[in-house]
From TrEMBL:
Listed GO biological process terms: phosphorelay signal transduction system; regulation of DNA-templated transcription
Keyword set, alphabetical order: DNA-binding, Phosphoprotein
An MF annotation (GO) of this entry: DNA binding
Keyword DNA-binding: yes
Keyword Methyltransferase: no
Domain HTH luxR-type: 165-230
PROSITE patterns, sorted: HTH_LUXR_2 (PS50043), RESPONSE_REGULATORY (PS50110)
Response regulatory domain sequence ranges: 32-148
Location of 4-aspartylphosphate modifications: 83
Pfam families reported in the protein's UniProt record: GerE, Response_reg
CDD domains: LuxR_C_like, REC_NarL-like
Protein name: Response regulator transcription factor
Length: 237
């Protein structure tokens, strides 16, 4: 591994392998991100997109499954952006290992494969979200920020509330709690509808009710407030 520096950033795709900088120490600072993809040009392009947003900081890059494991362990990023086809290990095994060893880090899959079975397999192994490389830039940025907010919320939960869990959760109906948990996993309305066997319009109505009860204007804000209120616990997501 080599240290990251501005000169290295200027040479797109020149060096294959993991590069890192010290993790962001301020918990209120930018969402810290590690990117692992074995296509240098694509990885550097995504890094440039994320660096352009001041709310995010790319703290490390790698090109293999072992890089993903070691960088996540060393840097404790809020979010790991992970490709599926990497040398050195299967995607499922890599996700499962990182989820066990670095449970705070949210793993966002970014792949060219539109494969429902693969998606379900990786989400079951511990991935937070599954995106294809056809995802618009705005969608990628929003998912990364959302994942980062959840990671930060998990970190803050133990001191968040003293009320009994049943009393805190009673703010939302059981159905609304279920919808909110799926929203926190960056699921689309259609995915949530399929998972709960309800209509997409019903999902939207539940979401509107959740926003109203929590005083939120977005998914990210609803999840953050759910953590602060203690509706979500550390191991819920």
């Amino acid at each position: 591994m080599a240290n990251d520096d501005p000169a290295a950033d200027a040479v797109i795709g020149a060096v294959r392998g993991a590069r890192q900088v010290p993790p962001e120490s301020d918990p209120t600072g930018p969402v810290s991100v590690v990117i692992v993809d074995d296509h240098d040009l694509f990885r550097e392009g995504v890094a440039a997109i994320l660096r352009h947003d001041p709310r995010m900081a790319v703290v490390g890059q790698g090109s293999s499954s072992p890089d993903a494991v070691s960088l996540t362990a060393a840097l404790d990023p809020d979010v790991l952006l992970l490709d599926v086809e990497l040398p050195g290990g299967s995607a499922r095994a890599t996700v499962a290992r990182i989820h066990r060893s670095s449970p705070r880090t949210r793993i966002v899959i970014l792949t060219m494969h539109r494969d429902t079975l693969l998606k379900d397999e990786l989400l079951a192994a511990g991935a937070f979200a599954y995106l294809t490389k056809a995802t618009p830039t705005a969608g990628l940025v929003q998912t990364m920020l959302f994942a980062g907010a959840v990671a930060r919320g998990v970190r803050a939960v133990p001191e968040a509330s003293a009320r009994p869990a049943r009393q805190r959760a009673s703010i939302l109906s059981p159905r609304e709690q279920e919808v909110l948990h799926l929203l926190a996993q960056a699921r689309s309305n259609r995915d949530i509808a399929d998972a709960m066997s309800i209509a997409e319009g019903t999902v939207k109505r539940h979401t509107s009710s959740i926003y109203a009860k929590l005083g939120a204007r977005s998914r990210m804000e609803a999840v953050r407030k759910a953590f602060l209120l203690g509706i979500f616990a550390r191991d819920d997501l």
